[in-house]
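Retro notes (design track)

What went well: tokenization of the new backbones is finally stable.
What didn't: we kept losing track of which sequence belonged to which structure.
Fix going forward: every design gets posted as structure first, then sequence, in one message. First example under the new rule, 241 residues:
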């Protein structure tokens, strides 16, 4: 061959020309299969998502329904409790005085139809009078007095113990409890501001109870008229030492 002559170009044979369309068809078919598989997977994932979303919606709806039912039941129970409490308060023949905690918290319940007056002119933390009629502080006889005396229990006890030694007073002392606290109960003729002989001979009762660094004194000026009330009131007293 003459080296100066140009080489003959490679001309595809008939076999090579037939092979290329076959390879292209295979690639197209494989691509279609892949696309179909991907579409199927997408549809499956979409279906799963929709199913889980639906289940979550149903569960949330069920929870909301139960919550609303619980709220409704709770409101019904609360209304029932409120009605029961209101009925109890209406039927309760007593009302309650609550002393400030700073004074040695205590509660005294007395008949609802009694009047109550707090004396604010005294140096003692609390002096209160309760009586079936209107309370007149200038009066000398009350169904109930309760006094938070600014003195230690031992000092107050000495004051009342002295009265037990006065024969004309017929004053006696006995141990008792008030709100679970050891106390002393005195019975006899109490001191009176009036000169009326009938009033000065009336027997009353005094109960003294320690409350922190002070003394709580309960007194009825007439056992004849109010002792039963007095005893009931004492049984209801609550002291928070």
């Amino acid at each position: 061959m003459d080296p100066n002559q140009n080489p003959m170009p490679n001309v595809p044979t008939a076999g090579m020309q037939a092979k290329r369309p076959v390879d292209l068809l295979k690639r197209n078919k494989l691509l279609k299969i892949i696309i179909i598989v991907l579409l199927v997977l997408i549809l499956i994932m979409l279906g799963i998502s929709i199913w889980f979303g639906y289940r979550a919606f149903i569960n949330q709806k069920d929870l909301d329904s139960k919550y609303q039912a619980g709220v409704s039941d709770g409101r019904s129970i609360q209304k029932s409790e409120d009605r029961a409490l209101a009925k109890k308060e209406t039927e309760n023949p007593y009302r309650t005085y609550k002393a400030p905690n700073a004074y040695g918290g205590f509660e005294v319940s007395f008949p609802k139809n009694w009047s109550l007056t707090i004396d604010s002119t005294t140096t003692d933390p609390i002096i209160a009078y309760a009586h079936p009629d209107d309370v007149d502080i200038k009066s000398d006889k009350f169904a109930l007095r309760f006094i938070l005396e600014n003195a230690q229990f031992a000092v107050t006890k000495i004051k009342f113990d002295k009265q037990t030694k006065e024969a004309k007073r017929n004053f006696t002392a006995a141990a008792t409890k008030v709100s679970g606290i050891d106390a002393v109960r005195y019975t006899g003729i109490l001191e009176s501001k009036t000169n009326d002989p009938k009033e000065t001979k009336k027997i009353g009762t005094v109960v003294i109870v320690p409350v922190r660094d002070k003394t709580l004194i309960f007194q009825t000026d007439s056992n004849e008229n109010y002792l039963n009330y007095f005893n009931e009131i004492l049984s209801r007293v609550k002291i928070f030492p």
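Added context from the reviewer: The chain has two domains: 14-91, 94-239.
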